[in-house]
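User: Assemble these into one structure.

Assistant: Restating your components, then the assembled model:
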Amino acid sequence: MLDFGPKALTPAPRQNAQCLGCHQSNAAHDWATSAHAASNVACASCHTLHAAKDPVLTPATQIEVCTGCHQAQRTDLFKPYHHPLREGKMACTSCHSPHGSTGPAQLVKSTVNETCTSCHAELRGPFLWEHQPVAENCDNCHAPHGSAQPALLTIRTPFLCQTCHEGAGHPSIANTPQGLPGGIPSAYLLSGGCINCHSQVHGSNHPSGRALMR
Amino acid sequence: MRRLRRRFCLAPVLGGFAMLAMGSGSASADTPAPPDTSGWKCAQCPFLQGSEVQVEAGAQYASGANASYGRYTGLDHSGAYVDAGSSGQFRRSDGTYVNYDLASLGLPSREGYVNGGQEGRYDLRLSYDGQPTRLYDTAVTPFQGNGAGVLGLPANWVNAGSTAGMTQLRSSLSPLDLGYDRSTVSVLGKLFASPSWTLFGEFQRQEKDGTDSTSASFLTQAVQLPQPIDYITNSIDAGAAWSGHRASLRLTYTGSWFEDDSASLTFANPFLPLVPGSTQGQLAQPPGNNLQQLAAAGNLQLAWFATTLSYTASLGRLLQNQAFLPISTLPGSGVLAPGSLNGDVHLSHYALGLASRPLSKLTVHGNAAYDGRDDETTPLTVAYIVTDTYAGGTAVTPRYSEDRVRLDGGADYALLPWVRLGVGGEYQNTHYGPGQVLTFLQDTNSWGRASIVPLDSLTFTLKGGDGLRKTSSFDTAALPPGENPLIRDSNFAPREQVFYSLTGAWSPSATFTWTAEGYFANDDYPLSLLGLRSEHERRISSTLTWTPRESLSFYLDAGYESLYGLQYGYVGPATAPWQIADTERFWNAGVGAKWVASERWTLSVDGLHAPSYTTTDSAIGGLAQAFPQNWSQLDSAHFTATYSRNAALQINIRYSFEKYDMNDCALDGVTPTTVPNLLGMGLQPYHHNVSLVALTVLYKLGTTTASVPK
């Protein structure tokens, strides 16, 4: 006799074998090598059986299930800038495949960029003028679970840009509180910072977009 | 309206507990084998028959709502909103069914689906999802003609060398709501051709329509501009899936076509032109593109040691060939030849995964993956014009290619019935194409984990590890002209990492559960004289749930996170290096309860407090200067009451209060004229103070009955 559920005595692999007997073919074909399987998570730890609506299958309630374990991501949800998860318009499974995948962080696509541009297709390129860290990995600049900076940036501009750009002239200057209103207001610091001029930071298809300004 | 509130539910917490506790339980597990389902009969699980419809209708009134509050829901102004939804199901004894669910019908965030089919034969689903994004309702701009692709200024506009001299600016400013609506329609069909084969196809059309902000410059003078958003993405996923007793295969074709209604955004120069003819500028808008991919994925279950082998292979091409814009709006500017990019990026992904249980107490798993991004676009030599102002010279467009190999794996061993040990690691090697500052980058990390169950009700898991990123020599010749050769791009810099985590779960009874998690991580970039030098992350969180009786439950949760980053910069000789230390701290605390007071009344209450603080300290040559602290604070309370008049009629009453305040020194008080060489839009940090009352009536029609099939 097997019993199912998060507190069941039956070990997770034995519980899961029952479920996978039927549910192996589609989303679950990467289950065995997934991080959840490696952590002995039972199907019934997330799925509520015999319910009219399984909470984990509804975006508005899914994050309650996921952040029960992934508590750091729960804190991220309440940061000033976030994807619309707590508003119920996205779910963790919009980006992640909890049953396993061969992408990093169990993403639904093979790479971070393919995952992000499945919704943000306007940033997919390829552009005439590419920006290397953009083409490589969106996570180089963005914190997708939540951030204190606009556009989910990991650090505020201009400082984020200055982690890679220290060229002679304005990229290298020290931005200080003197650049705020009350001092000598600086376009390098206020509003969009570097983005005030280099707005095409994801890439430009303009022939004169070399510095991502057109 | 569906905002996240802590619906009182033990499942998440118990899930966390299970993740830990099951680890110990499985120590004595036999090798699991897939069950033989051929003899299974549906003798216990009843089939539903009949029809059932729920209709909920009412109204909600929001006081104080604005774009900040309604960012993703569309509740963006004070006033009344229709609150309506419906769901239903229809099922027949032959297995045919129709389900539907419609929600938030009175809001731009409305969504719903209808799906129907016959069990075991086919399934069709039509869905719609509206997703508003309200960005700012504080924007003002003198630009006219938003949406047409050409932004002009009023006829009486007075150009000037700085914003202070633009004498017609104040009288020309018009308010502008920034934001857009994303609507997605999809049709999904599945045909269960046989017990082993399923054919599937999905078409999705996503439209994004509205106005965002962008910006541009004329050399040293910048403007913020309204940017029309008119995007359409059509995509198709189609294929076949096969499932045998010990193997599965899924073949998929994916096509995605992105179209932008605007190729360019032309805008008048509000400043005095720096050169003759520089009276307008032109920005390229995102070009149309398309992605085609073929993928095969599946698994193979081997007889030895409960081994599962999974595999994925995909090949794709990303194409873009939109016609180029003129090189500049300056008179006499030419056109770049060829007239379009013919962009062609080849994407490939191959992966193998393996999981096995060679001993009853030992499990191992591993993955090997290759990702290739091969940009085969021909580099072009471009004689470019800088910001529609002056000739900048000639440059070759860079193309970026990379090959990445990722290996990861781990093993888990049940040392004792109450101790479980695990080790694992990941190795990633990236080779970059020619013309980049690195030829390769290697990222390695390893970890160890111990799960201890001193009592049946108590579990601790301690995990720790480190990581090391090594790179090839840094080719400073590949840096952009003028770049400081001492800089190490943060994504290319050698890095040393160390991290620890401790999680605990205590569940002394079936009604009480407490979980806690702590995390500590340091990243250091020892070879980066300039750029990012170090990052630290600290976090702790805890959740407590108590269900003293079936009709009454409480929860309390809290979290804290601290992020720290330190970076160095250097202007040049005869100047002292500068540094920026950025510290971000986040808190969240929630409390709530649910009480089924009687057969008719159910009450729930939730509260949330979530502040954040960002401090940025700059220092030049040891002279410290602190930026004003940026902060935000979210406070909310929600109360719901449900009165069930009878089995068919239910009345829902909801009251929500939410207050949000924010300070951002880059935006606070920055008007269009604050910066002499930046004509801004006056975007201000978010604030709202909203009370929302909702009253809806839910009525159920029809009924489904459960019958055990013969």
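The two ends of chain A are 67 Å apart (CA to CA).
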